[in-house]
Amino acid sequence: MSEDDWPRVDDQAGPRRAEDIGPTELTAALNALAGFSDNPWLVMQGQQLELIDNVLNGMEREVLRHMHDDDRPLETMALLTALSPMWIYAAYELLRTWRQRCDEVVRLASSGGFDLKAAHLEREVNYQHYDRELRAQQLRIARDNPELVQRMRDDLARTEMGFTTIEFIRIALAKHEVSGSKSKNKPIAFAPGLAMPNRYTGSMEYELSVGGSIIGYHTRRDLAETIRFMPTTPVPTAEEMKDFREYMRPPEVG
């Protein structure tokens, strides 16, 4: 899949139909992120995420097709309700791991600590640890490739809004809390896990609530599309990021 074939947010007048989504778009987008395709474990997990996404797209299409029937596909709807949060958890963890790796590279580039960290990973542990060796090699590659480090900075910035949205929903689902609060007593999420099929896509739709306000709704399909759009998402300005973080921050509850 070439860069010209990637979906772009500006090209979409509304949500895409499931049948219009390419079966490999998700992995193509993930592999386009700086450093992602260099890690075989991330690539493997990205492929697994895409396989489940394709299955869910088919289930969502079936639910949409029969949404107004007297005899709705209740079993499929129940499975969709159960599997959609699992997909969100997996998507969040995959992106979190990739972002953590990129953040480490950016910090080491600023401190000049590539060689020290690589040497630590390469120390003798009495057995061959392939992933430690791979990460050490990747750090040395980043040391010698400032353009890769800058791509990681840009990709961290361009994915932060989408990742934060996924994180917000994931924390509400998994921890019954509102994401983003610095308070020790985290605000309690409103109706965590409650979702209904979206009338345009059949995908399960989740509410984003901050305090007493609903700030938005996102379907599982929206979150998957967010990942598919990541390679063509513009790098936000500092002012745009400041506004977004304020928008997503819940009120402090004592």
Walk me through the structure.
Helix content is 57%, strand content 6%. Helix 1 runs antiparallel to helix 2 (40-65), helix 2 packs antiparallel against helix 3 (74-111) and helix 4 packs antiparallel against helix 5. It starts with 24 loop residues before the first helix and ends in a 6-residue tail after the last helix. It has 8 helices and 3 strands. The model has no long low-confidence stretch (mean pLDDT 89). Strands 1-2-3 form a 3-stranded antiparallel beta sheet. It is mostly helical. It has one domain (23-247). The longest helix has 38 residues, at 74-111. Strand 1 (196-197) and strand 2 form a beta hairpin. It is globular and about 65 Å long. Residues 1-21 are annotated as: Disordered. Residues 1-20 have a biased composition (Basic and acidic residues).
